Structure formats: C-alpha cells, structure tokens
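Students often ask why we bother encoding 3D structure as a string. The short answer is that it lets us treat folding as translation between two languages. Here is a chain of 253 residues written in the first language.
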Amino acid sequence: RSMCTRIAVELVGLHGLIGDFRASAVPVYFGSGCFWGRQHDFVEDFERAVLRRADGDVTTVGGYAGSASAGADGTVCYENPANHSVYADLGHAEVVQVDVPLNAAFAAFDLFYRSFIQLDAGIWAREDFFDIGPAYRAMVGLPGGLQRGALELLAALHSANLHNMTLREGRGSDEDTLGKNLVFVMDSNQFGFHQAELCLQFRNNQTGTYPASYHALKPTLEAEGRLRHTGCPGNYVCNSTLAPPPTMVVLQI
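And here it is in the second language, the structure alphabet:
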C-alpha cells in the first residue's frame, strides 16, 4: 500500500469518514499529465482504498477541461484523423473528474499533489514530463473556483499542498505548467468537464499495466450510466467511440 494511501486511510479513520460518501459529494476534476495514470490513482488510492466504494459506485472518469470552447456539435475529442473538435486545439487539457465528499477532500487533494515528481530543487512536475504542451498542464476544477468554492474544498486545496505549488486562478486555455511549480484552479461552472471517448477509459498507463479487474470498470460504469458514447470519431488510439447501429431484425413472411 502506497504512502499516499496509508496517510489518506489514517486521516479517514481519524475523522470517522468510512460510510456513505454520496450525500455531500462534489464533482472535482484533476489534471496532471496523461489522464490514464490519474484515473488509476483516483480509483485505486482514493475511491477504493479511502472511500471503500464498490465497483458500481466508482465515479472517476477521464476527460477534458480547462476551456469554455467546444466543437460546433458540442463535442470535445481526442486527436483524430478528421481533426474533429480536438481537445488541445480547443484549449482543453486531460483531466479526471471524481465525486469528492467534502469530508474526504483532504485525501483527494493529497493524492493529487503526491502525483507530482521532483525535477529539480523546489521544482515539481507531472510524472510524464515527456508529454509536452498545455494539453497536459496541472489544474484542478471545482464549482466556484478559487473565489467562490466550497470552504471545505478550498481548505483542503491549500492545506494538502505539500510542495508549496503556486495556485493561480485559471482563465481558460491556459499555458503549460511544466517546470513552473504551478497549478491552475478552474471554476468548473465556467470551464466544465467533457467526458473522453469510451475506448479511452480505464486503459493502461504509458508507464505500466493494470489488472483485468480495473479494465472491467468501463462496462460497469457504462451500465450505471456514468459513461456514455460521446459522438466523437475514431481517434489515433482507438476507434470504438460511436454507439453501435441498431440491430436489424428480418422478418420471415
């Protein structure tokens, strides 16, 4: 069990948090490099380990955020041959959105900050520093942002900041944060979350592979209605993004 998970579980135990976390949960999105790694982190080290959520209750979804723009049809998509609504071109970055209970907010932000690695003295950055550009910038998004967010979320955002990273209000389509010790804080009411394509959910990270039980979360969340077809075209990673055509029944007369 990781240091991050141990600390989070101890904090949860101290505050008597084990139980029903749905009543006061707030959707928060977190970005720090490729979302495949962050999706796995939040499922395993937050939702399962800290909140004790069952598979059917998992809420961590990969997607895009950080801009007020979308394609003409309202879509935001991964890089694709048709160049249709490409997220980076629209000013978005890769993120995961999680339903965070207010009384477990510290554990969520602690996990987020501990995902950064030290590049140099006092310089912390995303673990996949080889992914270059604002599409991988560090950010968090919560309703109200830095100015009007819930007090519990803002307190956790600041108190969990163990690397003393600069927290700056995001304006949308912001710059890359690599090497700047910087995290943009977005108002998710203004800069909303867009779910990524189905075939991009719960995949292996670029630096590691995950067990079948983790990959099986995709059909589970589809069945629960937490994942849906986005209408985006096939992309450079996978093609199963469109809903299958209706089954045709041939009647014999």
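Translate back mentally: The longest strand covers residues 93-101. Keep this in mind for the problem set.
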